[in-house]
Amino acid sequence: MGVGKVAVFSGIGIAALSGLTWAFLKSSTYDDLNSVLSFSSRVAAGMRAYEGKEKEPLYSDPLAELLAGQRGMQAASTAMKRYEGAADKESKADRKYLVGRVALRTLYYDDHLLAACKAGARQVVLLGAGMDSRAWRLDLPEGISWFEIDRADVLNAKRKVLTEAQALFSVDTNKGAKYPLRAAIYRACEADLGSEHWTERLIAAGFDPSVPTVWVAEGLLPYLSEATVTALLNSARSVSAKRSRFLMMAFTSEDMVKSYNECANQTPVAWAKELSATFKSSFPTDARPYLEERGWHAVSVNFYSDLADKYAHGLPWTSTPGMMVNLGLSSSSSSDTKTVFIDAIPF
Ligand SMILES: C[S@@+](CC[C@H](N)C(=O)[O-])C[C@H]1O[C@@H](n2cnc3c(N)ncnc32)[C@H](O)[C@@H]1O
Q1: pLDDT band at 69 (very low <50, low <70, confident <90, very high)
Q2: pLDDT band for position 329 (50/70/90)?
Q3: Across-strand partners of 296?
């Protein structure tokens, strides 16, 4: 072999090796996941898990800490530490932490999801399901088909954790199980929600467009472009039977997206820096006409303060998002009314 060829081959070898090293570094930084966006699922689970550290937690999510993993818990702890002790100072509440925003949104989605199932929905689709454990913890009515859509790395990592925890994926084996499946069937569906064909993949996984469905987008929409959000709403609408619902949360201010993007370089926290650069879209301040144009009618529109009024039982809560805390942003840029929770029906 000539010197030139050796140089080319060793060049390719070095490139391949550094590619592998980079992939390894990434996946070890993000606990077996490929990107910061996938890792955000572990951070959300970590934030949820912190509520379980209270003497009288507002909900129980025993799988959350396992699903968050060590790095997800570590990431969540950065924000939660700032909330430590503040609860006692602000009130006589016997709590370690202020009630977090992820805790409030957990209670909101639990409540609205169960209400939709009780009102007749028989399918649940979690869009960007991440490390959500509701299929193993909610007291669902009988006969619910449960679908989770996310990227392959997230779904695989989740299945691994759940299998190790002996959570079940089928009701046939439920008897005596520590974490029985609460839905009638569970299907994980790998799909890119930014692609045109995700509904086809969902149908191939067993989803039935003639059955009333609850669509759940929790902690997802701001990461998608406006065009993708529009396409997603239209696609979900096109396979929604009557009496379906869409539970979503979104930013309603471009400022919020800009604040995240602009502050990406101001934080020493590597994952927060990377994630804040990925925020892309918001709804307009008045979300109702925006949704109407996309085939959805908002039945209710709520802000974090509404959620706190309803679910925090007078306990002190934080109006600053954990991500903002990590980025060192002031609370003025995170005003309560900039995140909206919408329960919508198709028309
Ligand atoms: C912040 S996490 C929220 C996870 C979960 N809904 C929760 O609240 O705990 C965002 C999730 O959306 C998923 N996601 C983001 N963009 C996606 C896309 N284009 N297709 C599929 N999943 C996506 C990520 O992989 C991640 O699991």
Answers
A1: very high
A2: low
A3: 346
Report pLDDT digits (tens) over 202-218. Answer: 999 999 999 999 999 99
Nearest atom of ligand 1 to the alpha carbon of 216? 6
Task: Report the separation in Å between the CA atom of 150 and the middle of ligand 1, taken as the mean of its atom positions.
Answer: 6
* 96 residue type, one letter: K
Decide which of 6 and 65 is more confident. Answer: 65
Q: Give the span between the Cα atoms of 183 and 172, in whole angstroms.
A: 11
For 217-244, the pLDDT digits (tens) are 999 999 999 999 999 999 999 999 999 9
Domain 101-346 has CATH 3.40.30.10: no
CA atoms of 73 and 100, how far apart (whole Å): 14
How far is ligand 1, taken at its centre, from the CA of residue 1, in Å?
Answer: 49
For CA atoms 164, 170, 176, 180, the dihedral sign is positive
Burial of 319: CB neighbours in 10 Å, binned 0-12, 13-18, 19+: middle
Residue ranges of domains in the chain: 101-346
Please state, as a whole number, how many other Cβ atoms lie within 10 Å of the Cβ of residue 255: 15
Token pair, residue 189, equals 């569906």
Question: Does ligand 1 have an atom closer than 6 angstroms to the CB of 223?
Answer: yes
